[in-house]
Amino acid sequence: MATKDDLLGSLGSLIDTLRGRIDPWLPNAIFTRASSLMLRAAAITRSDAWDGLPSNPPGGQAVVAALDTATRTLVTANYENPASVNSALNNVDSALDRLENLLGI
Amino acid sequence: MSRQVTTKAVAGLLLLAGVSACATDALRVDYARTVAAEGKAAAEASKEFLHRVDIGRREANIELVAADPACGAESKAKVRKTPRIEAREGRGWLCVPPRWNPDEHHEFSLRPITPELAPTLDLISALTSYTEALGAIADEKADDPLKPLLDALETARAAEGAIQALRNRTDLLVPAADDKRIEAVRGFVALLVELAHERDQVKRLRAVVAKHPEGAAPVIASLRSHLRLWETRRGADAAVREFIVASIVKRSVDSRPPTSISARREALTSYYALSDANDASAKIHPALDDVLRELDKADRGFRRVLAPNPDLNDKERARIAELNRQRIVRALQSLTALITSFRGA
User: Fold this and answer.
1) In which residue ranges of chain B is pLDDT below 70?
2) Are B339 and B9 in contact (CB under 8 A)?
3) What are the C-alpha distances in Å from B76 to residues B96, B108, B112?
4) How far apart are alpha carbons B315 and B127 in whole angstroms?
5) For A47-100, what is each residue's pLDDT tens digit?
6) Chain segment B285-316, per-residue pLDDT in tens
7) First-to-last CA distance in chain A?
8) Average pLDDT over residues A41-52
9) Are the C-beta atoms of A59 and A49 separated by less than 8 Å?
10) How far is the C-alpha of B277 from the C-alpha of B60, rounded, in Å?
């Protein structure tokens, strides 16, 4: 069962990976989309909802798995190929949806 | 063998038996000292980390407002969910200005987070109270056991000197300051006092532990959790800052008409420097978490050996055996010195 700390760890890894992948030389559309997801992740970290989250939140394991998959596909994506990058960003989008659901935000 | 020497030999054998039993106390005090030292280091490192988190948030806020004045119009910056990277205007590309159509946005408070860090700092204080209490006991020195006796001898010698001068006598009744019997007694008594002091320290360490039945474990677990959340927020603030600076590079390169050479140089220099700094900062929290994990282990080990008949591991048994060996050697040396100095008395 995933803990609150596991969720934070996986979210932190995703944000750090996004940070490392967003550079000024990405095509504008991809840069904008990646930045938008990064700002969304940042807003999630600032939410007060974390204070009320139990140590072992139900459904946490699936969210951790989604965040980790998103991080992995960001790392392995081919950044010369927009379709590959967009597919990785789709995983990020869906992982953040699940996390927001879990936190109730 | 004279009666006095026989008495002293028996006392010596009893002393040796006591030495063996007390080496575990020395280990206990040693472990308490380790917990105190590691606790102090962990507290300092945690406070420094939180300070960096505080600064990191302020730096992200500064970058928001510097990049787009619309971000600084209110205490909560309305950061666009989809920034307008290609917008030509300097205002409104990153944040929604007041009285504009409120496009989808996140609200990022520009106020410092210092008050929000207080509960975590309270946890650090609680940890410090516990480890400092252990340290204060473990680091105490035993009083010099012979000081009152030596002060009395000094007084007696001075008095005798005055009497001799009046009666014109030269033979001494009070031992001279360098009399080897005094040194031998000092060595013997010092060892006894050290053993008794350790026993007393262990009693007081047990009293501290009785007041904190679970030791530092709950506080450390809670602190690690708090710090994990702050690290995630710190990382997000660093990412926001880096994204803004990357956007500025993009906007300065794509700008029509082009921005100045110095503006482009400054933008790209800032981007590289910030990226490197963020990579380095990401290593701090894992190192801090390791320190806290080690502290937890040290505290659990201390509580284990503090028990009356502790379950010792091989390393601990070897350490006790070595302490015993050192103390037995010292006890034998003290005893020999004692017997030798009083021989013929």
Assistant:
1) 1-21, 143-177, 343-345
2) yes
3) 11, 5, 12
4) 28
5) 999 999 999 999 999 999 999 999 999 999 999 999 999 999 999 999 999 999
6) 999 999 999 999 999 999 999 988 888 999 99
7) 22
8) 96
9) no
10) 14
Q: Which residues pair with B78 in a beta bridge?
A: B107
pTM here? Answer: 0.84
Burial of B167 (0-12, 13-18, 19+ CB in 10 A): exposed
For B311, the token pair is 């379950």
Please tell me which residue of chain B has the smallest CA distance to A15: B236
- DSSP helix/strand/coil, B106: strand
Give the span between the Cα atoms of A68 and A94, in whole angstroms: 12
Q: Helix, strand, or coil here: B97?
A: coil
| Residue B287 burial by Cβ neighbours in a 10 Å radius (0-12, 13-18, 19+) | exposed
Q: How far is A103 from chain B (nearest CA, A)?
A: 14
Contact between A38 and B243 using a beta-carbon 8 Å cutoff: yes
Give the residues across from B79 on adjacent strands.
B95, B106
* Long-range CB pairs of A26-29, under 8 A, 24+ apart, other chains included: A26/A79, A26/A85, A27/A82, A28/B85, A28/B86, A28/B250, A28/B254, A29/A82
Choosing among B96, B232, B265, which should be mutated to test the A contact, i.e. which has the most A CBs within 10 A? B232
Q: How many helices (H) and strands (E) does chain A have?
A: 5, 0
Q: Which of A9, A19, A32 sits opposite B228 (nearest CB)?
A: A9
Instruction: Tokens 């993009």: give the residue.
Output: B250
d(C-alpha B263, C-alpha B252), whole Å: 7
Assigned token pair, B115: 């008050």
pLDDT band at residue A105 using 50, 70 and 90 as cut-offs: very high
B211 CA to chain A: closest CA distance, Å?
Answer: 26
Question: Most B CBs within 10 Å: which of A10, A17, A39, A40, as the mutation test of the B interface?
Answer: A39
Contact list in B for residue A32 (CB cut-off 8 A) is 82-83, 85
Collect all residues of chain A within an 8 Å Cβ-Cβ radius of residue B271: 24
Measured in degrees and rounded to the nearest 5, phi and psi for residue B11 equal: -60, -40
> What is the pLDDT at residue B1?
45
Using CB atoms, pick whichever of A5, A12, A43 lies closest to residue B106: A43
Please indicate whether, in this complex, the C-beta atoms of B246 and A31 are within 8 angstroms of each other. Answer: yes
Predicted pLDDT of residue B289? 96
pLDDT at B21: 57
